């Protein structure tokens, strides 16, 4: 039972992370938003996720950053894949 609860909480975090990433991206529209305490907190969470995508896909024209879009899709696909593996193969063995 504990394994199911842990898996559930991990997947809740993974389900809500794209929303956190979306808020972080919207903050770029407001000058000085990244310098606030909330902006620094989101930066610590979101930048490690976006950095590998930015290495692969540089900003177009130095302005348009498409890496968050790719990150959204990668996070969702990884979440669905992990949920399938955990709930169909790993948890039935553990429990």
UniProtKB/TrEMBL annotation:
<keyword id="KW-0812">Transmembrane</keyword>
<protein>
    <submittedName>
        <fullName>YggT family protein</fullName>
    </submittedName>
</protein>
<dbReference type="InterPro" id="IPR003425">
    <property type="entry name" value="CCB3/YggT"/>
</dbReference>
<comment type="similarity">
    <text>Belongs to the YggT family.</text>
</comment>
<dbReference type="Pfam" id="PF02325">
    <property type="entry name" value="CCB3_YggT"/>
</dbReference>
<dbReference type="GO" id="GO:0016020">
    <property type="term" value="C:membrane"/>
</dbReference>
<keyword id="KW-0472">Membrane</keyword>
<feature type="transmembrane region" description="Helical">
    <location>
        <begin position="6"/>
        <end position="30"/>
    </location>
</feature>
<feature type="transmembrane region" description="Helical">
    <location>
        <begin position="63"/>
        <end position="86"/>
    </location>
</feature>
<keyword id="KW-1133">Transmembrane helix</keyword>
